[in-house]
Amino acid sequence: MLPSPRLQRRDPTSVFGLNAALPISITDDFSGRPKVRDPSSLCAMHAFSRISKFILVGLISGFLGSVSAGPIPGEYQVGGFALGCQAYTFNRFTAFEAIEKTEAAGGKVIEFYPGQPLSPTDRNVKVGHDMSDAAIAVLQEKLTKHGIKAVNYGVVGIPNNEAGARQIFEFAKKLGLYAVTTESTDAIDTFEPLVKEYDIRVAFHNHGRQPNNPNYKIWDPTWVRDLVKNRDPRIGACADIGHWQTSGITAVQGLKILEGRVISMHAKERAKLGPGEHDQVFGTGATDMAGVLAELRRQNFAGNISIEYEFNWDHSVPDVAQCIGFVRGWNAAPKQ
Questions:
Q1: How many CB atoms are located within 10 Å of the residue 173 CB?
Q2: Exposure b/e, 12-22, CB count within 10 A at least 16 = b
Q3: For a Cys-Cys bond, which of 71, 86, 128, 284 suits 308, CB 3.0-4.6 Å?
């Protein structure tokens, strides 16, 4: 917590708007009485403080610039896959808490979504592509502390203009993301050159079929396959297998349709096909999660699996941990 505002003067370089406080008086002894410096001394101290903070900002910018997109390192694999959580699993909490809960469940990667408050003490700062560089650096520091890697960002709308789309890719580059998750199929001509420029993937996410909205076609993996087939190979699908099951499509069937274009997966177990089913622990429903993992392995899938557990919202960590345990067990079991 910052000292009392009456002893502070704000300066434009803190962690979240690059704005920090400078003391207007200091205490030199143990009496507690403030001892004010002479004006020339104060000027020198303030000049040094400003220079120091500019150096800090430069270091932050250099750090962010050194983060690179690319393949997900093997150290973030669990059970043979880059495995972790979609932060929306913990949408009743902050991004910091989502990172902590992902670690507690045994995950190694996280997919952020736009709008989640950053931390319990900085709820006014939201995760998103308009974050300041300093706020991004604080988020990266939290990830590093817990051994978690940010891999995706979404679902986010990508504007159908180069400047707006570029802002999202710049954010992804600074976080070192593997992919951006979107449903902005209309912007594909705009962001395809940015995919090539930044070497960052774009994955089309699907929600369930909307019977009253025939223009919503992205629910159908065949439609997505045809959309991306002549595009850069880094443009593909974020296969939300829960929404496929809501739409009557089995998870393995959908993955086979999109072979070679599955960039990431939102993993969900359901009791049966059709609407109205909630998420449950892997291996306890009808999803055939073992078959899903086997199909991903057959396709040499190199992306990430985000567990998006939309049930038992306040106390889901044990359930998510069991899902991660299922993947570990599947990977360790002998294969025929």
A1: 18
A2: ebbbeebebeb
A3: 86
